[in-house]
């Protein structure tokens, strides 16, 4: 293993694994902290998918350290900590505390932070993160159910999460090229937030990070890393993608993301004739909505052209109302448990294809499905691949970050494997 990665949610892990495999690394994605003797096959990169974005910081640190120790013991020369391209976190963490702990583990004092993902319109300039044309704090991320992002200045945001110095390496330094950038990074103590607005910026930054033991960022920063191993003769040239054969079987669409993109995708799917059932956390706790009813609905639509869609996606006012009654964490967990239970019941009924929107939601669903390792297949939309669970009775999954994907994501994804 050359690169060991830890991702703080499942869709983030598949996003990163897609990037690494498209850039020529044999990449295996593991769900949860792997066993010390886990079989990583001949993987060049192992991506450990945690569900640590919104759990208490001490638990996120413990899980990340446990994963990192195994990756290092199994040969990873470089560690990558993957978080969201919209830097999803709270002032309590978990990005800063995990970076601190990983640096301590490695005995290092410096790292970088760069969530930019230009292909998905996340850019970083003067330390401010932009989503499309607006600062992060004016984007729909300001209303995220679990990690509302209300400050676009990542030097400030990360500064509130760590006691280490947080500085800025500006775009001008990136534009000076790999050598000068490496010197600028070396001159920074602590964690350097690095500007990037194009893929070329990320390539330059990646090349300057060849010797940095811990790299942190979104998935796009990882694009430049495989070339560093290749330049050292450790990795062959990029191979053609292996053919992808989706297992036969029935499918289901599940959406627990409340992002603006997912809400558009839910509306688009309905407009294209997908049968859809809304899942409501208040109705669940009051016993007005049950898993049995949802399963009946799904069964009634077994002959439709598209799988049915179960969605809890709701606008910010509706989410706020549910959270005021149930609590922020509990409202989310009720929905996650409900969708996970449906997925588990469907798997027992022979369903093999699960298309899921939302990072936390995907984590809950994949845990319930019992998947422990997945291989990366072709890209559906930037940052969203098909994945195949490993072992007998393979399942075919699409785990979509809430914010990613075109409006017709659900029907398009299904069309690719129909
Ligand atoms: N109607 C709702 N009310 C309150 N919380 C909800 C509702 N629907 C979904 N949630 C919760 O919001 C969170 C969305 O997070 P996630 O699945 O990671 O989506 P995203 O990828 O958009 O961040 C989950 O915990 C989910 O259970
Ligand atoms: O970097 C990203 O934006 C994604 O890979 C990601 O982390 C997904 O998180 P969710 O938006 O919570 O699905």
TrEMBL record:
Taxonomic superkingdom: Bacteria
Q: Which family does the UniProt entry place this protein in?
A: Belongs to the four-carbon acid sugar kinase family.
**Molecular function (GO) terms listed?**
ATP binding; kinase activity
Q: Does the keyword Nucleotide-binding apply?
A: yes
Function (record text):
Catalyzes the ATP-dependent phosphorylation of 3-oxo-tetronate to 3-oxo-tetronate 4-phosphate.
**Reactions it catalyzes:** 3-dehydro-L-erythronate + ATP = 3-dehydro-4-O-phospho-L-erythronate + ADP + H(+); 3-dehydro-D-erythronate + ATP = 3-dehydro-4-O-phospho-D-erythronate + ADP + H(+)
What EC designation does it have? 2.7.1.217
- The identity of this protein, by name, is 3-oxo-tetronate kinase
Species of origin: Paracoccus versutus (Thiobacillus versutus)
Q: Which NCBIfam families match?
A: OxoTetrKin
**Record bears the keyword Cell wall biogenesis/degradation:** no
Keywords, A to Z, come to: ATP-binding, Carbohydrate metabolism, Kinase, Nucleotide-binding, Transferase
- What InterPro entries does its record include? 4-carb_acid_sugar_kinase_N (IPR010737), 4-carb_acid_sugar_kinase_N_sf (IPR037051), NBD_C (IPR031475), NBD_C_sf (IPR042213), OtnK (IPR050007)
Enzyme class (EC, first level) = transferase
């Amino acid at each position: 293993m050359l690169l060991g990665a830890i991702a703080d949610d499942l869709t983030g892990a598949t996003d990163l694994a897609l990037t690494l495999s498209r850039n020529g690394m044999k990449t295996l994605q593991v769900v949860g902290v792997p066993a010390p003797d886990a079989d990583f096959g001949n993987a060049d990169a192992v991506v450990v998918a945690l569900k640590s974005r919104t759990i208490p910081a001490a638990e996120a640190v413990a899980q990340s350290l446990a994963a990192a120790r195994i990756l290092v013991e199994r040969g990873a020369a470089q560690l990558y900590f993957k978080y969201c391209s919209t830097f999803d976190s709270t002032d309590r963490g978990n990005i800063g505390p995990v970076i601190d702990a990983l640096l301590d583990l490695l005995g290092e004092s410096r790292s970088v932070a760069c969530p930019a993902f230009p292909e998905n319109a996340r850019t970083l300039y003067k330390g401010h993160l932009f989503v499309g044309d607006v600062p992060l704090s004016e984007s729909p991320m300001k209303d995220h159910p679990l990690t509302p992002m209300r400050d676009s200045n990542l030097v400030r945001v990360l500064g509130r999460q760590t006691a280490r110095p947080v500085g800025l390496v500006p775009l001008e330094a990136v534009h000076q090229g790999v050598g000068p950038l490496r010197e600028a990074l070396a001159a920074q103590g602590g964690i350097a937030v690095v500007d990037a607005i194009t893929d070329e910026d990320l390539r330059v930054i990646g090349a300057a990070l060849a010797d940095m033991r811990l790299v942190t960022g979104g998935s796009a920063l990882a694009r430049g890393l495989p070339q560093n191993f290749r330049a050292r003769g450790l990795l062959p040239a990029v191979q053609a993608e292996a053919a992808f054969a989706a297992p036969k079987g029935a499918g289901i669409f599940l959406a627990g993301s409340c992002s603006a993109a997912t809400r558009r995708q839910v509306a688009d799917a309905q407009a294209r004739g997908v049968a859809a059932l809304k899942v409501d956390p208040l109705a669940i706790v009051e016993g007005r909505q049950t898993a049995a009813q949802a399963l009946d609905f799904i069964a009634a639509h077994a002959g439709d052209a598209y799988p049915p869609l179960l969605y809890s996606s709701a606008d910010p006012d509706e989410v706020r109302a549910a959270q005021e009654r149930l609590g922020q964490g509990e409202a989310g967990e009720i929905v996650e448990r409900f969708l996970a239970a449906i997925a588990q019941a469907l798997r027992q009924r022979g369903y093999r294809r699960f298309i899921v929107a939302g990072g936390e939601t995907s984590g809950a669903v994949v845990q319930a499905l019992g998947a422990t390792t997945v291989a990366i297949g072709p890209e559906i939309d930037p940052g969203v691949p098909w994945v195949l669970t490993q072992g007998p009775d393979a399942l075919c999954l699409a785990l979509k970050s809430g914010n990613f994907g075109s409006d017709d994501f659900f029907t398009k994804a299904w069309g690719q494997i129909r």
